[in-house]
Amino acid sequence: MKKLIFLFCIFITTTTSLWAQKAKSDSNIVGHVVSDGEHLPFVTVSISGTTIGTSTDETGHYRLINLPEGKLILKVRSVGYQPQEKEITVTAGQTQEVNFDLQKDILGIDEVVVTGDRNEKNRRESSVIVNTITPKLFTTTNAVTLSEGLNFSPGLRMENDCQNCGFNQVRMNGMEGPYSQILINGRAIFSGLAGVYGLELIPSNMLERIEVVRGGGSALYGSNAIAGTINLILKDPIRNTYEFGINGGASGVGLKGSGDPVQDYTVNANASVVSDDNKSGMAIYGFYRDRQPFDANGDGYSELAKMKNTTFGTRLYHRFGIYSKLSADFFNIKENRRGGDRFDYPKHEANIAEAVDHDITTGALTWEQFVRGTDLWSVYFSGQRVLRDSYYGANQSLADYGNTKGFTYNLGTQYNASFGRSTLIGGIENREEWLKDKKLGYLDIDNAEIVDGEIVSIPHTENTIVADQRSNILGIFAQYGITWAKLNVSLGARFDHYKIEDLATDGSAKSGNVLSPRLTAKYDFKPFLQGRLSYSQGYRAPQVFDEDLHIETSGSRQVIHENDPDLKQETSYSYMASLDFNKRLGKVEFGLLAESFYTKLNDAFVNEYGTPDEDGVVVYTRTNAEGGATVKGINFELNLVPSEVITFKSGFTIQKSEYEEAQEFDQTKFFRTPNNYGYFSLDVKLLHDLGLSSSANYTGKMLVPYFGNQIADPEAGELRESDAFFDFGMKVRYHIHLNGSKLQVFGGMKNIFNSYQKDFDTGVDRDPGYIYGPSLPRTIYFGIKIGNILD
User: Fold this and answer.
1) Which residues are the signal sequence here (predicted)?
2) Nearest-CA neighbor of 768 among 556, 546, 549?
3) DSSP character at residue 31
4) HSE, side-chain direction, 13 A CA sphere, residue 7
5) What global pTM score does this model have?
6) Helix (H) or strand (E) holding 678
7) CB of 322 within 8 A of CB of 50?
């Protein structure tokens, strides 16, 4: 590993010195960017085919200095506006003025996205649908973490899977979390260990945006991208900015039969600084959260876990020349989380305690080199280390402390070439992950040696290795795209060789070679109407996944997950078709997306529920389903902007997920998967500085297994149907102008109608997996933000 990093740094240093800009030209461009007569601040201005770029200041003006001589393409772009380009001729020693007047892109169809084809494209030009979750949506919904914002994209639904600790996952197109690939700046380093609680640990203030691509993406991104990809794009330092905010509130207000409402507050800060010559920049961000445990049914056990976490990170870049750029990312997350009861006692003195202490460190280096003026070559290294101390135990057990270590890295290179109306993308990358999970030894008082009524010695048990796994995936990918008039077609494939080593048992290994093709086509029926078709294959390798590292705990049973020794890889075949309509109808901007999906899963992964042993331990064994499974449905997305002061977004999914043969409880349906769910968000500017927003999530009925003591045979369990939920919230905000900065005061309420689960299991023997519906009861919040980039 150290050799790889060393060689990577040597390569970058050598290459950038060869391509460095040799002399200052004193050729400059200045200007302003306006729209409807108003100057636009913080608009990105760049030179195509180079790393040169800046942004307009608070007054809407910009400058670029020491530019290369000759013909250049100057382009500007900003969220909510159509991008624009101008060709200019630069002469040494001269300064010229170039101004831009941008047209509004209210529906966002011309925004730049990167995830669909691993290449920058306008959304309307992408051969696959890419949905974007922006900071504005996080503000509208008051989502302080990634998990709170993912509900507001078509086909996505966040769910809580543990009544004790709050383990959550995102489902896409009806499939569980491990079917979606989580990316950080396009790199697959979000490990299985981080995935147990990771979505709730990523603060929204560190994200520039989130790009969501539904459907099989394995042809470009590798294993686990069957349902789609979620790409977390971190904030980039392109301007001098700052923001500071405090958000506080109370959860559980007015919920009958519950304990007292509990506090939940966050503090966040962001700042970025760019050098005068725009060659270097740095962004920093920080986040702190403190949430107290909440008891929803008054039985003395928490339904919302106690949580404290701190995040700090930075992103830096330096341009060695006009065609080369080195970027670096770093962030660290520390978290303490605990659910159960007796929070003032040590974990092993509680009746139930599920607790984890996380230390997650992520870093990345990316070198970019423009070639031929149109091509981009990149070399990258990303890594993530996760340290976790855990306790999953009940009835004052000393035997349930654990320690887990994981490390994941991704090393690769990619070349994007352009040939007029066609493009070619190719690359190779290696992803490796180590995971070691163990239960810690303890003083075994029950077997102490006693002589004459006195303890002579107490044996100490040894550490027990639960999982020791190493996985390696070496992938080669390529995609060719070409445009003929109104038709755009792209054909891609990825070849992966994977090897999964189980070092905890006999050192056995499983390996395989997988070819994952992808074919997409887009046709412009009209400038405002596009149709898309796609076919793709994907796979999941037989390795440890996130839910395997979580243990459901009660006083009567303890659920752990493991893989069947004969578990085979799961393979998917996905088909998608969509129509995307975006047009101004009178004075109303109107957008409607209808997207159908069909996925066939061969050797689908399923759980077989075991029988509790004498210690109450139940093993859920992942094996392959006979006959496979199918997931099919349709996603709708509606964007409606009747005026400049009103924005309405909505999405709804109708779907069906079934195994071909009956599984547990003699059912073919997927559990915890509603056949319909959706959302909406509404933002209204009542006055110039006064805004009102509302948002909601709808969750349909679903089947949920129950293994608690409310039934005669808890070991056999019972299948129940949940209620439907409508989680509605409102928020009001007001801006105060302060000499180039803004102070925002806001307040609101989430889940106003307390649409929340009413039949939580109770007591020390409760079934903690019997949890569904919205993650928060009625919550009141308020806060302030100050900065120069507030919405």
Assistant:
1) 1-19
2) 556
3) E
4) 7
5) 0.92
6) strand 676-685
7) yes
Same domain, 472 and 600: yes
pLDDT mean across residues, the chain: 90
Task: Give Cβ neighbours of residue 95 (< 8 Å, ≥ 6 apart).
Answer: 27, 28, 29, 30
- Where do we find the tokens 């080369």? 324
Nearest in space to 154 (alpha carbons), one of 705, 559, 676: 676
Count of other CB atoms within 10 angstroms of residue 171: 23
Strands (E), 173-261: 180-184, 207-214, 228-234, 241-251
Residue 93 sits in the same domain as residue 118? no
User: Can you give 504-527 as a three-state secondary structure string?
Assistant: CCCCCEEEEEEEEEEEEEEEEEEC
pLDDT of residue 17: 47
pLDDT digits (tens, 9 = 90+) for 294-316: 999 999 999 999 999 999 999 99
What CATH number does residue 320 fall under? 2.40.170.20
496 vs 504: CA distance, rounded Å: 25
Please provide residue 570's backbone torsions phi and psi, each rounded to the nearest 5 degrees. Answer: -100, 135
For 122, the token pair is: 């306008």
Reference 412, options 370, 385, 378; nearest CA is 378
Q: Does residue 539 lie in a domain region?
A: yes
Which of 456-465, 578-587, 716-725 shows the lowest per-residue confidence on average (mean pLDDT)? Answer: 456-465
Expressed as residue numbers, the domain containing 41 is: 2-101
Which residue among 101, 131, 157 closes a domain?
A: 101
In a domain, 107, yes or no: no
**Alpha helices of 674-766 — where are they, by DSSP H?**
none
Contact present, 323 and 368 (Cβ < 8 Å): no
Q: How many residues does the chain have?
A: 791
Please say whether the beta carbons of 559 and 618 come within 8 A: yes
Residue type, 289: R
Task: Please check whether residues 120 and 78 belong to one and the same domain.
Answer: no
Structural domain count of the chain: 2
User: Which residue type sits at 39?
Assistant: H
Rounded to the nearest 10°, the torsion over CA 114, 653, 672, 392 is 30
Can you give the three-state secondary structure of 375-429, one letter per residue? EEEEEEEEEEEEEEEEEEEECCCCCCEEEEEEEEEEEEEEEEEEECCEEEEEEEE
pLDDT digits (tens, 9 = 90+) for 511-531: 999 999 999 999 999 999 999
120 and 154 belong to one structural domain:
yes
- 3 state SS of 7: helix
Encoding tokens for residue 253? Answer: 């207000």
Dihedral angle computed from the Cα positions of residues 85, 87, 93 and 97, in that order, rounded to the nearest 10 degrees: -50
pLDDT at residue 23 in the model: 55
Q: Which residues pair with 315 in a beta bridge?
A: 283, 329
